[in-house]
Amino acid sequence: MGRVTIRDVAERAGVSTATVSRALSGARPVSPSVLETVTRAADDLGYSGNGIASALRRSRTDTVGMVVPSIANPFFTALVEGVEHALQQAGRQLFLCSSRSDPDLEAQRLRSLVARQVDGIVISPVHGIRSREALAWATGQLPLVQVDRYVAGVDSDWVGVDDDLALRLVVDHLADSGVTSAAFISSTLTNSSTELRVAGFTEHTARRGIAVRDVLLGEYSIAWGREAMQRLVAAGPLPDAVVCADDLIALGVLQACAAAGVAVPADVLVTGFDDIPYAALSDPPLTTVRQPQDDIAEEAVRLLSAALGPHRAPPARSALAPSLVVRASTGVSASG
């Protein structure tokens, strides 16, 4: 099939080409049902407007799309809330989409947001490689800011946490606590933040002379944390510490330790990453890396607003400093 035209979309949707133009440009309102029909037809055919939709746009819509891998993960829930609040301050509305950690669904979400004429997009991409084509296309359509994770080779702004510094803080704290061996439990290496956290763990344990007992890769979930810890318990003997790439994994690790009669922190120290609300409520409360989520959200909106201005600056990369919240899971009485 050759290049998809506006006429192809009109035929698929069963409407006139003029209606398709109105629906995709936002120049004049159409009914929600017509907009849905036209958008679905454009998505099905892979129609991007070839720049037509952008050219037809008469004014800003004051809407911003956001795509995150999961709205069930408390880290992304808080990040979305921060972005929504910052946008509200700027007089803009948020359209939220979950990609459910699926690059194909992510690409579909991006096409839909562009078709709906959002002014810009904030996205935490699913995959370092498989997300690239859709992100590169979307970046060619409108301003886009990557948050938390990033896809290399995409010409856009990025803001997130300094993952290397985060692991330096964790490992230095453990080394200063007398740890000489550690295991790392993470997700599979499919995105930038995961890769940087594994690399940071490897580099800083070597720097402090901590022996790496194991690196277990699965997913960001409580269930995987439980399973991975069960493997470490079964393999025995335990390392001095278990470092987790996010708090959900760490909560699963604490559950498995409790079930196996492994005392935390007497038998093993445990650390997390993100400082989700549950981290302070776990038993014992979890030592974890606190991400500056509000600052990340505000910087993402600031970068997007700047990109929407008349003078487009070169893409910026902003790695914000994290902090370490020390609690009882590493042998210190809870500090909140």
UniProtKB/TrEMBL annotation:
Tagged with keyword Transcription: yes
The entry's keywords: DNA-binding, Transcription, Transcription regulation
Stretches assigned to the HTH lacI-type domain: 4-58
Domain of life of the source: Bacteria
PROSITE patterns: HTH_LACI_1 (PS00356), HTH_LACI_2 (PS50932)
Gene Ontology molecular function, alphabetical: DNA-binding transcription factor activity; transcription cis-regulatory region binding
Matching Pfam families: LacI, Peripla_BP_3
Entry-linked PANTHER family: LACI-RELATED TRANSCRIPTIONAL REPRESSOR (PTHR30146), TRANSCRIPTIONAL REGULATORY PROTEIN (PTHR30146:SF138)
Protein name: Transcriptional regulator, LacI family
